[in-house]
């Protein structure tokens, strides 16, 4: 990248490589050395947004979930959204009942391995895949049962479409959780969905506020405020506390962008928003993209041959894929398993061709099932993804997917026993990993590159100093500006012949007359005298 290359250039380059036209739903995410996530701003320089040295770690993500993913124009767009929601399911962000979880997993299975074949799929084949943070044998049997009996004959595109239709009906569809605390100190997750603002505590949605009643969002330090307008002109302010000021600012910016994208009719209605009531204080931010309605209208005008889709794990004939396993180490704990390694030099081509297969669960050599021809080709190819135990560590599940039979309970103990992580901090570490080897990790659709975190502390301190200096300069600038305006008004009042009602009322007040004759006139004579003296001195010299 050139040093002055904007985020839009990088994003357009990536979308061109993926042959993606409906690109407004997507974005590029990165994590700074302090493990704070950010969305790449397209109007700013890429290099200036990074607080580390190149090469950088960036992740291609769905930023704005479609209101109706099944209504997307092109199959390539639906496939990429399918990969994101499949990742959400795996990381526990998409909460669902056992019956829904089994159906979603069966759709994934049908899309990735095709129809059930007794010769290729031995007993317990569904247990080879990791769909959720935790599994149960009963759930695995239910997944296999649905896959065998109900989905036979469905093409990958049809299975993905059915998956999207089902996922859209769930309460946590489109949730990207931000950890916070409420005014009582209780842990909560805030999220913005296509339909409004959501607050989750445990596995329950405690607040759902539609975009049309959200009037304002602002933040001060770690405190986030959401202003809600209700019937009878009642206003409610919801207050939450983020872990850090940077996290709170990220939450605020996400809220501003989501509200603009889903609520507005036209992008021309977008306004610059300030985080404070005082225009010289706080942060200012403006959403720079198109809104949902404009995106849908633009998508309807797309007329081209559907681009070829390179689905992960599928052979060219789109029949049952093979799963190629690297050497398995039985002594490695389950929490250290890692799926899908991709060489950095393989770039986006490997991301498109082979990086999105569902993570395979731990098994012995004898448990692996693979087509012999495909396995042989995989061994001779440098671009094939290799699944190995020694580096496998599933990213954190901040909102674990409940798969208990009769309830939606968060089983923290069970998650730990099954190796599912428990905090968002670990997921950030997963996204911001800094491997020293020449390979980067790819899980469910992210392109990895080495990202050193050196200089993080010094950069943070420098940024704080810069913010303080900028705030002081703003204050001085505003003060000088106000004084200049007052001086102009004073000159107009005392020296001009304007006889408007406003000026006449001011001039007739006793206070103004006293000021004019006792202070302003002597000051004017003194200033004129000094000017004449300076002019005479210049003439003499």
UniProtKB/TrEMBL annotation:
**Where on the tree of life does the source sit, at the highest rank?**
Eukaryota
Boundaries of every FERM domain copy: 1-266
According to its UniProt entry, one GO biological process term is: actomyosin structure organization
Work out whether the entry's keyword set contains Transmembrane: yes
Keywords, A to Z? Cell junction, Membrane, Phosphoprotein, Transmembrane, Transmembrane helix
Query: Which SMART domains does its entry note?
Result: B41, FA, FERM_C
User: What PROSITE patterns has UniProt attached to this entry?
Assistant: FERM_1, FERM_3
Where it sits in the cell: the answer is: Cell junction, Adherens junction
Q: Which residues cross the membrane?
A: 472-494
Keyword 4Fe-4S listed? The answer is no
Region Disordered, annotated ranges: 353-380
Q: Name one GO cellular component term.
A: adherens junction
User: What is the protein's known function?
Assistant: May be involved in regulation of cell migration. May regulate cell-matrix interactions via its interaction with ITGB5 and modifying ITGB5 cytoplasmic tail interactions such as with FERMT2 and TLN1. May regulate ROCK1 kinase activity possibly involved in regulation of actin stress fiber formation.
Give the protein name, as stated in the record: FERM domain-containing protein 5
What is the originating organism of this protein?
Answer: Aramus guarauna (Limpkin)
Name of encoding gene: Frmd5
